[in-house]
Design goal:
- This protein has about 160 residues and is mainly alpha-helical.
- The protein has one domain.
- Helices cover about 75% and strands about 0% of the residues.
- The protein contains seven helices and no strands.
- Helix 1 runs antiparallel to helix 2, helix 1 packs across helix 3 and helix 2 packs antiparallel against helix 3.
- The radius of gyration is 19 Å and the shape is elongated.
């Protein structure tokens, strides 16, 4: 039971490497697949549907910090940049790849929580966005399990 919960917890945040951990814990392909899928779906559900709350909370904190700095006339306060290098990269990915590739790959490469929030921020107004992310998570889980179990199983890595 603890093996499954370990994979579910790991898949919630480090989705890409959880099938590898499942293989190393001695789980079968299907056990690892479903444990990883459950963890990813739980994380997606929480962060996708709570993304508006997180974005509002972040904005309110920035505004509060700015007002406090103005009220105290803090000379050391620098207003943070709104368009950072990371934001530029994310917008470039959004505009060049489109909704389908973004919803498929961003949760895989960044993480499920961050990818879900980004997809909800950019494409939350599209009705198909949650379904695209779900399809991407299922497809990515299957592909990652196949890679780690069948291709990765050919190379035996042992710690000394």
């Amino acid at each position: 039971m603890w093996k499954y919960l370990t994979i579910v917890g790991l898949a919630s945040f480090k989705f890409m490497f959880s099938p590898l951990a499942g293989e190393k814990l001695g789980l079968t392909f299907l056990e690892s697949f479903f444990s990883t899928l459950v963890g990813a779906l739980i994380s997606w559900g929480v962060f996708y549907f709570m993304s508006e709350y997180f974005m509002r909370r972040n904005h309110a904190k920035k505004v509060e910090k700015y007002k406090k700095a103005l009220a105290t006339n803090d000379p050391n306060y620098k207003r943070p940049k709104n368009f950072t290098r990371l934001n530029k990269t994310i917008v470039k990915v959004k505009t060049t790849l489109g909704i389908y590739i973004t919803c498929w790959l961003v949760p895989l490469f960044l993480s499920i929580p961050i990818g879900s929030i980004i997809c909800a921020k950019f494409y939350g107004h599209h009705k198909k966005t949650p379904y695209l992310i779900l399809a991407g998570i299922v497809l990515n889980t299957f592909l990652l399990c196949c890679i780690w179990y069948f291709v990765g199983g050919m190379v035996d890595v042992k710690a000394n």
